Amino acid sequence: MALKRLVVDVHTHLYLPRYASLLRSRTTLPKIISREDGERLVILKDEPSGGRPIGPVYTERNEKLEFMKKHDIDISIVSTANPWLDFLSAKEAHSMALELNDDLEEYCSTGPALTGTSMRQLYGFGLLPLVPEITTESLLEAVKQIAASAHLKGLIMGTLGVGKGLDDEALDPVWDAIEAAGLVVFIHPHHSIVNSETWGPKQNGHVLPLALGFPFETTVAATRIILSGVFDRFPSLRLLLAHSGGALPQLSSRLASCIDHDPVVASRLKHDARFYLGKLYLDAVSYGPEELGFVGDVLGRSNRFEAGSSSTASGDRVAGSKRMLFGTDHPFFPPLSSSEKWKSVVENLDAIENVKGWTEDDKDGVRGGNAISLFNL
User: Fold this and answer.
1) Does residue 40 fall inside a structural domain?
2) Residue 54 forms beta bridges with which residues?
3) What molecular function terms (GO) are annotated for this protein (predicted)?
């Protein structure tokens, strides 16, 4: 009998009870408010519909396990959803990050409570107290805590770092500690949604900031990391980009050309910009096979741009698929009916299945095998 190939969800969120309580206690944004029709998370001023409806699916472990069971997901690597700790003082962020990391370890390590879920496993991305005025010692304490946790395999990080972006030299000791610990950093956007005036009339809801703002925010953050030489200084650093890397795969050759025409920037880098794409991991939250195949092609060709490389296009798509990992973005974008499966699951699995040129081994890798290897599960 053939062995079952595991399905691993690397992009799945939660609001731990301690974090939800913090948001309920707040009188300024971001906050959770109660209405007659239930609780809502409010991040933006004048937010459409008075905020995003939330409920037990955002906070309860059993709900996560039910979701995994319904969609035949074997392992989930969960992460706190934005806005993280950006709105806290340095002292508050420090203590909250450590407490939430302990909470997440407990969330992941507690035995399954549902019949038939005994083989489903939970792991997590911890939090750093990434706020202005935080000390390097505080950040390194959180890295050490995450590295010592049995079920925390990395950390989720927004695009602002400690306020100046992820290319801030102040983060170099943090990158060094993360690299040494072998942790994976999940880069996830948030701040583009806050600049609501960019996206036109509020009748557009969250469509533009989520569909375009989030991916472009990731694109800019990852590009700044590349341009600052982070990968040259920390060559074993492992970064996982949300939403298939945004527009970076599409614009990577244009980026390389612009760098070539700027000697000051070019002199900082050891490789062509396209080489660094092969250092990245991307989630497979693309929703379409054509988009997914394209991203795989771009990732796979990166070895052509290594200094002195004589490699060709042969086998590039296979190599690219090995840097991509399935995700669902649960519990966001829920179905309208409780009997339906979540489109973010169905459409992303269908996309993986229908990429032209991928072998069954390639597809199995993206569905779960690549995550098993990356996170040493």
Assistant:
1) no
2) 39
3) carboxy-lyase activity; hydrolase activity
Sequence-separated (6 or more) residues with CB below 8 Å from residue 191: 158, 159, 160, 217
Domains identified in the chain, total number: 1
111: region left, alpha or beta (phi > 0 left; psi from -120 to 50 alpha): beta
Tokens found for residue 164: 């100046």
Expressed as residue numbers, the domain containing 104 is 8-15+57-374
- Cβ contact 158:113 at 8 Å: no
| Short-list 190, 61, 207, CA closest to 122 | 61
For residues 303-340, b (16+ Cβ closer than 10 Å) or e, as one string?
Answer: bbbeeeeeeeeeebbbbbbbbbbbbbbbbbebeeeeee
Exposed (0-12), middle (13-18) or buried (19+): which is 235, by Cβ within 10 Å?
A: exposed
CB-based contacts of 29, cutoff 8 Å, min separation 6: 42, 43, 44, 45, 87
Domain assignment of residue 23, yes or no: no
- List the end-to-end C-alpha distance of the chain, in Å, as a whole number: 23
Domain-embedded: residue 3: no
Locate 27 and state its tokens: 């009188």
State pLDDT tens for residues 235-270. Answer: 999 999 999 999 999 999 999 999 999 999 999 999
Radius of gyration of the chain (CA): 20
Which CATH number belongs to the domain containing residue 252 in this structure? 3.20.20.140
Contact criterion met (CB below 8 Å) for 9 and 327 = yes
pLDDT in tens, 64-119: 999 999 999 999 999 999 999 999 999 999 999 999 999 999 999 986 654 454 57
